[in-house]
Amino acid sequence: MKTKLYILLFFFGMIMLPQNTYAQVDFNKRPDDDLGNVEDTFQEYFFEALKQKGIENYQKSADALLKCIDINDSDPVLYYELGKNYMQLKNFGAAEDAFKEAVSKAPKNEWYLDELYGVYIQQNEMNKALKTVKQLVEYHPDYKQDLASLYIQLEKYKDALKLLDEMDSQLGYSEDRDYLRNQIYNITGNNDDRIENLEERVKSNPEDESNYLRLIYRYSQTGETQKAFDAAKRLLSLNPDSQLVHLALYKFYLDENNTEKAIESMKVVLTSSIIKPEAKTKVLNDFVKFVSNNPQHEADLIEITSLVSEDKSVKTLIELGDYYLKSNDKEKALGYYQEALQQEPNEFKIIRDVLLLQIDLNKNEEAVTRSQEALDVFPSQPILYLINGVANNKINKPEQAIESLEIGLDFLVENPKMEADFYKQLSESHKQLNNITQSQTFAKKAEALLKEQ
Fold first, then answer.
1. How much is the CA Rg of the chain, to the nearest whole Å?
2. What number is the average pLDDT over the span 84-112?
3. I need a surface site. Which of 186, 199, 225, 243 has the fewest CB within 10 A?
4. What tens digit of pLDDT does each residue of 117-137 get?
5. Span 23-50, pLDDT tens digits
6. What pLDDT, on a 0 to 100 scale, did the predictor assign at position 310?
7. Cα dihedral sign for 348, 353, 359, 363?
8. 367 touches 374 (CB < 8 A)
9. Confidence of residue 402 (pLDDT cuts 50, 70, 90)
10. Greater confidence, 166 or 395?
11. 218 neighbors 198 (Cβ within 8 angstroms)
12. What's the CA gap between 425 and 403, in Å, rounded?
């Protein structure tokens, strides 16, 4: 928050030392009277202070400056340098005293005021910081934003807004000041003022698309949907080529069941080169949910889906898979889940859904292979052993099925229904091996468990 202005001077990388504040001693002049010894001593201590500061011996530097002050305390730079040493030593009280003395000797020196301001910030003395930064504003307008931040911390929200309005009027809008402004609105809950400010921006600069988009968002956040919709339509009438506005329009069109316009807006979004993929994902997901409740628009979903680039997000692919599974189109659902799995190969839920669909669709060889691969990653998941056993039974490999099922049972904990499924599959495996007695035994175990449910 604190504004820093640095000027490089000549001795030992000395920082922020205004040339007009050097001690009023001519260090090049050779002593020619009784004061010469005094000048020599002052000079010796002063350069010792600079040397010790240069090698980060801040206490020794401070001690040397105090000796300079004992000789001649008229120059504020001595207190300024002393304060900076105390700051390095974390002795903030002593630093404050030193900087205050420097300011008292040179009240219009912004460097001294800036360091004093820094001390107050370090000590969380916000009222004192406020007083100091008000002085700094007189010399440098960049401190106005610091002043606005301090007003907010001290809950002087009207003062902060007035200052931000003044800065916006002089300098134009900025993200930093908008952030401060929104902090105030969030704290006070004053959405009316927030919206009034945005409406004023729209009037004063109707060509700026971002102002409309912020206004649409804020109206939506406060539940004033119709006003948000009206603002979106105003933007579209002013800028028919706007693509970003359709991120809002499609939703409004869906809510009023204007499907034709909603689809048009979604096509604009999904084919836009300036809209981010995350936003496109949100649009597509919303339309998937809409079609779930309005299946007559499935053809539109298929058309819109084809507009999305091949790098669909995992969330979008899962949403599409869920939709087609709900519609009992298991082949399409499997296709989307498999695409999602390519992006997230170790996501357990997607692996499970793919395997279950492969079993349902009698893709048993694929299920055996994928379930074995999954067990390498998730060796303690009983459902994977069960699926592997089912798939092996279906392709007449009972020995492999038994091996997998017996291991899976060891990982099963308090799940009678799944345990019954394991016994059913073990019964099937032994039946294939013509071990009728064992097959019947496992069948009875499964039946007994199911009766307890």
1. 38
2. 91
3. 186
4. 989 988 888 899 999 898 888
5. 333 434 433 444 446 678 888 899 999 9
6. 59
7. negative
8. no
9. very high
10. 395
11. yes
12. 11
User: Could you identify the residue written with the tokens 């898979």?
Assistant: 321
Strand partners for 8: 15
- Residue 98 and residue 94: Cα distance in Å, rounded? 6
Q: Which two three-digit tokens encode residue 359?
A: 């079993």
CB of 83 closer than 8 Å to CB of 115: yes
Question: Which H, E and C letters describe the chain, residue by residue?
Answer: CCCCCCCECCHHHCECCCHHHCCCCCCCCCCCCCCHHHHHHHHHHHHHHHHHHHCCCHHHHHHHHHHHHHHCCCCHHHHHHHHHHHHHCCCHHHHHHHHHHHHHHCCCCHHHHHHHHHHHHHCCCHHHHHHHHHHHHCCCCCHHHHHHHHHHHCCCHHHHHHHHHHHHHHHCCCHHHHHHHHHHHHHHCCHHHHHHHHHHHHHHCCCCHHHHHHHHHHHHHCCCHHHHHHHHHHHHHHCCCCCCCHHHHHHHHHHCCCHHHHHHHHHHHHCCCCCCHHHHHHHHHHHHHHHHHCHHHHHHHHHHHHHCCCCCCHHHHHHHHHHHHHCCCHHHHHHHHHHHHHHCCCCHHHHHHHHHHHHHCCCHHHHHHHHHHHHHHCCCCHHHHHHHHHHHHHCCCHHHHHHHHHHHHHHCCCCHHHHHHHHHHHHHHHHHCCCHHHHHHHHHHHHHHHHCC
Residues in the chain: 453
Structure-block tokens of residue 44: 């010796």
Residue 16 is predicted with a pLDDT of 36
As a whole number of angstroms, the distance between CA 356 and CA 413 comes to 21
* Distance from the first to the final alpha carbon of the chain: 65
Mean pLDDT of the chain: 84
The three-point CA angle 442-447-449 to 5° equals 95
More confidently predicted of 211 and 352: 352
